[in-house]
Amino acid sequence: MAVPKRRTSHAKQGHRRSHHGIEPMQVQQCPVCNEVVMPHCVCSNCGEYRNRKVLVIKQKDKPKKEE
Question: How far is 44 from 1, CA to CA, in rounded Å?
């Protein structure tokens, strides 16, 4: 079985893993409601995609305040 002759240094290990960094998620804003949306996805707030109504979103009922 192959065994390394020398220990890999932190610098060499870092150079090898240079492409493993985390990239930020790409997001954009919905042109209708200005909600943050992933690209090429339907807006979960208003249900629009490319300025067309695709989904019918039910509005959540607000809880009534009891006095």
Answer: 54
